[in-house]
Input
Amino acid sequence: MSSIDFVEVARKGKLPVVAMGHVNVQEVVAAEPHRSARLRVFSRRIHGQPSFTFSMATFVFTLVHRLARPDSEFRNMLVHSNCNYSRAAPLLFFRAKNGNEGDVERLHFCSWHDLEPHWNSTRDHALWISAEGPYSDLLKLLDSIRDERVGDCDDLPSAEAPPVAAAKGDAHQEAIAFRNELLSRNWPDGKRVAEMAGAGSRSNPHQYAARQRSNGALLGVWVAAERTYRHPEFQFDAHGAIRPAVADLLKVLPGNGEDRNGWRRAFWLYSPHALLSGETPAEVFALDPQRVVEAAREEFCGDPNAHW
Output
């Protein structure tokens, strides 16, 4: 093993900042200790295997947010860790078996040099986690990760979760799971939207999509972990062009003022609807966009409680 993929979360001011990539193991072992708070999740790179896919990255981001919860075992281990090295800039290692935040174990190594032989001899599918920096800063980093997830989900109250979620009890968590499921479809970001339309700009490849969103011709959903918008695929025809009827639909759906991150509209579009014979608006739109527009008008311009 000579290369590993990683997702890194650090702080910039009060906000968590995410980076992704891959790095040579020997470089990690030889690197100087990181003095500020940083959380990194590593995955072994198998020869011939591509780097993190979007769905894998989404899975890791979800894991990181769960680790940051106040009641997580990871946070509890972090708070009560007791090692015989300087508490000013500790380096702690953990392993999440099969990527499960409920099965995280503390590894009793104090340096990458000590960890490397153990890592090389283990062949399971665990994700490896390093927590670096002063304890107080690490806890602040976890708090900022948790707070951003809460802020990013404040457009998803239980009343706006998919109908199936309400039956399962914890609608808010179900809404988050549904959002992650939608993101696993790898919707195009702004750069990809411009490429499909043949309207890319070398200086700002995201400008075209931003202009279409501003003009009400394109729906984007904000992905806080990536600091970018993703665009649901139902809006594009077989050639990648934005369907003209999207603008008509967005005029009827709640606007950006009511749905600042776009997720309320995305949930509606990808949830079964009674006026569409149980199909989702996104499924019907490609064949009969006017039918979807009428269903949206019936719901959002009529009785708001008629179809939930």
Summary: Residues 158-300 form one domain. The chain has two domains: 3-152, 158-300. The CA atoms of residues 191 and 202 lie 10 Å apart. The mean pLDDT is 75.
